[in-house]
């Protein structure tokens, strides 16, 4: 497992595997490193606020990323502007790195839309609830990039790659195996990024696989690497490398970010039914934010003024999330007929008219 | 007589079936320790062990595909699909394999598989969690499709579904899981394969199944207060259809409104309208009408109240039938 920072926040120097990746980290400026920290803290705050909003009845459900911040920020920051991300429903940190306003995500969980953002705007595709489906979309998209000649040209602003996010549970789905097959056979520029948070709702990883997931790649004919998913530097370096390989025409790459789902699967889930709290306690000691903060401070790359400023920014962001959610209007009901087809559809047009007339018939009839 | 929720009635029904027949095995995602996302299998793994209550990998095609193999080996798999919208990865196995095995083996092979699917909307969920996809399966010859609406039918129905040698798609109305009702402990007086007259009436027949039965009974109650007598038929079996009960009712009332959550176009209501019209045309005072979901992808939850038929829309349908 690739690790560049110990849980105590010490740099892992040298080592056989780690050495290949240190250059990526050494190239980062202090400003960029502080940016990583800021991302980690801000997205955790968004997550905490969203969980609170769900508890207060403002969101129907929320899928928390608690514990997975480093896996998402590390990989999200490794993306080039022209790369494309295909998420599941939990990639709030990646969305953040791509510049998607968290309110876009909350709209879906509040139930005012089923996605609602334009994937082309930030190269961040719609959340996918059906487990594994997006890995095929990502592979197809990567095939498109290939056909557009935007792979292996050597032009760093032109060459592009795709990153597909999924969980350990998803690897059991046929779709994911088929995505691996297609990507390998087509040599498509796609990085498969598995956040192994060790649980698929109530089922542990052992219920989905009997070998370490990163080793699967080999069977399909492409490289796979396991990285400490709670180590933002290692995740960044490994993903950056994988993306470079893909962009340069070396084909797909599997990154398994080994991490832990600290919270419930979603706000509807009750993890006390199937896992012991002792495990959670162990993983608390590997917290991705605490470890990175310790390193930044020890190295003198950030000081308390900076850390305080980030806290203040987090408070502001939380307020934005809260206000924005409370002010989010319900959609206008007839709008549900609007985006079903590109061309007019007579049946829908008639139904829309009936719908409006039917509702108009109630107006003023309330006694 | 005991009072049970639909969810608990199903748990008890599954338990009874497993006690009766050691070949009954349950399969699905999260059905073990967690007891399923709706807790329908709660406690069963503890009592029957991991060999009979199988927590499967997260793979619907795998779940149904391996159930086919288990059935070939003499087991009676009862699989749980977590939500209606997640059945599609298994669709191929259900329509191409499960449904056709009997016919292609010229009757030598049976597929005693039950596919349990929580169905329908109204619980404020995100997308793919609220769909009514029964028409895909009623359109497929070789499957039986049922949808229960109350604890009594849930308790007996699941046992009858497991006992039959044909494959059954067994729909459970998720927003009614927590509704309570009487469950008789004696053997069922009615078969799951026949429709039930849930309320007698004379002016118009309202046909529904699953989650909409309760809505239609409420509508009938409201109509009664305005002096209209509605007969409510709970279909229970969507395939085969109990045309005898449907036609007997419409021949009495002269009018019929079919209500379901699914989009109307190409839906089960269309099939019922055609079948009933064909057989009872001369008794009809009005065309058989449909009240259903609009022809849209299931909308985001803040709009589901506008999408789903409610009491008013049922009564509006009845008004239109009576206006002929
Ligand atoms: C096809 C399909 N089946 C079942 C589900 C229900 N479901 C939602 S999330 C989940 C577990 C996913 O686990 P994993 O892939 O490890 O991702 P995680 O949520 O842990 O990030 C399940 C079973 C679904 N959304 N789609």
List the helices and strands and how they pair.
The complex is a heterodimer of chains A (367) and B (324).
Chain A: H1 16-26, H2 30-55, H3 69-76, E1 84-86, H4 92-97, H5 102-110, H6 119-122, H7 133-147, E2 162-167, H8 174-186, E3 190-196, E4 199-200, E5 203-204, H9 216-220, E6 224-228, H10 232-247, E7 253-258, H11 277-284, H12 288-298, H13 304-326, H14 346-360
Parallel strand pairs in A: 1-2, 2-3, 3-7, 6-7
Antiparallel strand pairs in A: 4-5
Helix pairs in contact in A: 1-10, 2-3, 2-12, 2-13, 3-10, 7-8
Chain B: E1 2-5, H1 6-20, E2 24-28, H2 44-48, E3 53-55, H3 60-72, E4 76-80, H4 91-98, H5 101-104, E5 114-119, H6 134-138, E6 144-147, H7 151-163, E7 168-173, E8 180-183, E9 196-199, E10 204-208, H8 211-225, E11 230-234, E12 237-239, H9 243-253, E13 256-263, H10 268-280, E14 289-293, H11 304-307, H12 311-323
Parallel strand pairs in B: 2-3, 2-4, 4-5, 5-7, 6-7, 10-11, 10-13, 13-14
Antiparallel strand pairs in B: 1-8, 6-12, 9-11
Helix pairs in contact in B: 1-7, 3-4, 8-12, 9-10
Bound molecules: thiamine diphosphate (TPP).
